[in-house]
């Protein structure tokens, strides 16, 4: 069985890329739970803790938990810089207590009291619109420039962007939902909710051994995600400036609906050709029958008749770092299933998050290439989008964003 070891610290795992499904990585922050989990019994799952304080915020390099809650907030017109500081101070204090398995505050309703911290992480991000509202336009980083429009986007403004972003993850849904409710209450009078999205990934221990997860298309998803032990990992994921963002990251978010009814009617060989990997085990089609999931993708491999084994429009070809000038990002995604649309088709797909030092060198070039030629794009709809600056972690006694607001 697989579960996070109690007391796992981000300091122990922080230190480049082909792609599994480059639009997401439901298998975990680095394509599987094996890197961060040791065999244990199910009873330790709820006791696992991820410290809130540290050089980087939680919820970036940790494997994707079983449940995720994303929420964006907009500041009220009356909220100024001191109000934002008070909000972030309160959010950080509550998050530190909850990630330690303690009640968020005296007298809070303790909905999740008996569940344990369950690897709870809380991550905060700042949208580009925030800086003008609090008089800090001159400190808005260049990397927070608006993402370009991509062919095929059908974005809903009401479910995109925002002044503030909160990501809550936990291996127990009650813990995650409760944490978000606490944070939303603390925002009363300072910020209003803009949108909310909920997602899920495989629960630790659900497989007989740690495995890369699958998305709702049934594909092994996240195989070639960068790992903390890879050379250049920190340079790929974490920013070095401006000063208040040193050690932070930039999160690109996309709500991607999968057209599952059309996808599910495709024969298996067609699905595998579109992705470039076997569906059964995630092995690249370039590797032949003896390939395994971790076999490197060979984009030049051909069949005896000279036909490329990885099709020209295959997802793994167009998403590979070698196809995009070395562009790479840390993908950390969650599946979602929000019921049925008016036509009876499932409103389901992927909540995709990509962390990188600079979106102009990570997400943007990859998505531009995918949107123009990826065979998988016919079965996807990008319906919401956002970009947030995720500041570095807070030291003990401090709060996230303190250097920006008080520096």
From TrEMBL:
Localization per Swiss-Prot or TrEMBL: Cell envelope
Residues covered by the Dyp-type peroxidase N-terminal domain: 57-200
Its EC number(s): 1.11.1.-
InterPro entries named among the record's database cross-references: Dimeric_a/b-barrel, Dyp_perox_C, Dyp_perox_N, Dyp_peroxidase, EfeB/EfeN, TAT_signal
UniProt-listed PROSITE patterns: DYP_PEROXIDASE, TAT
Cofactor binding: number and manner: Binds 1 heme b (iron(II)-protoporphyrin IX) group non-covalently per subunit.
Cofactor: heme b
Domain Dyp-type peroxidase C-terminal: 213-393
First-listed, main subcellular location of the protein, grouped into a coarse class: other
Statement: the UniProt record of this protein carries the keyword NAD: no
Highest taxon, organism lineage: Bacteria
Catalytic activity: heme b + 2 H(+) = protoporphyrin IX + Fe(2+)
Keywords recorded for this protein, A-Z: Heme, Iron, Lyase, Metal-binding, Oxidoreductase, Peroxidase, Signal
Protein family according to the UniProt entry: Belongs to the DyP-type peroxidase family.
Role according to the record: Involved in the recovery of exogenous heme iron. Extracts iron from heme while preserving the protoporphyrin ring intact.
Protein name: Deferrochelatase
UniProt lineage: Bacteria, Bacillati, Actinomycetota, Actinomycetes, Kitasatosporales
């Amino acid at each position: 069985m697989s579960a996070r070891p109690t007391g796992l610290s981000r300091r122990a795992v922080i230190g480049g890329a082909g792609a599994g499904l480059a639009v997401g990585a439901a298998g975990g922050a680095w394509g599987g739970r094996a890197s961060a989990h040791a065999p244990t019994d199910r009873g330790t799952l709820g006791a696992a803790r991820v410290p809130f304080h540290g050089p980087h915020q939680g919820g970036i390099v940790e494997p994707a938990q079983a449940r995720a809650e994303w929420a964006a907030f907009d500041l009220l017109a009356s909220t100024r810089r001191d109000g934002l500081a008070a909000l972030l101070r309160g959010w950080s204090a509550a998050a530190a207590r909850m990630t330690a398995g303690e009640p968020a505050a005296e007298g809070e309703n303790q909905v999740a009291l008996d569940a344990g911290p369950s690897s709870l992480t809380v991550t905060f991000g700042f949208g580009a619109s925030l800086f003008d509202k609090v008089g800090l336009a001159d400190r808005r980083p260049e990397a927070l420039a608006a993402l370009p429009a991509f062919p095929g986007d059908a974005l809903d403004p009401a479910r995109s962007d925002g002044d503030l972003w909160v990501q809550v993850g936990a291996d127990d849904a009650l813990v995650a939902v409760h944490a978000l409710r606490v944070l939303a209450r603390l925002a009363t009078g300072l910020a209003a909710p803009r949108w909310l999205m909920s997602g899920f990934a495989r629960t630790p221990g659900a497989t007989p051994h740690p495995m890369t997860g699958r998305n709702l298309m049934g594909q092994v998803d996240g195989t070639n995600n960068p790992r903390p032990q890879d050379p250049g990992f920190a340079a790929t994921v974490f920013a070095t400036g401006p000063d208040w963002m040193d050690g932070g990251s930039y999160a690109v978010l996309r709500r991607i609906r999968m057209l599952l009814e059309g996808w599910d009617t495709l024969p298996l060989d067609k699905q595998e050709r579109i992705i470039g990997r076997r569906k059964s085990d995630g092995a690249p089609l370039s590797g032949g029958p003896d390939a395994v999931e971790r076999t490197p993708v060979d984009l030049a491999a051909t069949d005896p008749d000279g036909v490329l084994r990885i099709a020209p429009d295959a997802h793994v070809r167009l998403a590979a770092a070698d196809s995009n000038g070395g562009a790479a990002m840390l993908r950390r995604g969650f599946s979602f299933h929000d019921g049925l649309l008016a036509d009876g088709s499932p409103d389901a797909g992927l909540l995709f998050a990509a962390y990188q030092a600079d979106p102009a060198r990570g997400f943007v070039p990859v998505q531009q290439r995918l949107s123009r030629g990826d065979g998988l794009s016919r079965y996807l709809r990008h319906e919401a989008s956002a970009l947030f600056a995720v500041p570095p972690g807070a030291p003990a006694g401090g709060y996230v964003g303190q250097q920006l607001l008080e520096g």
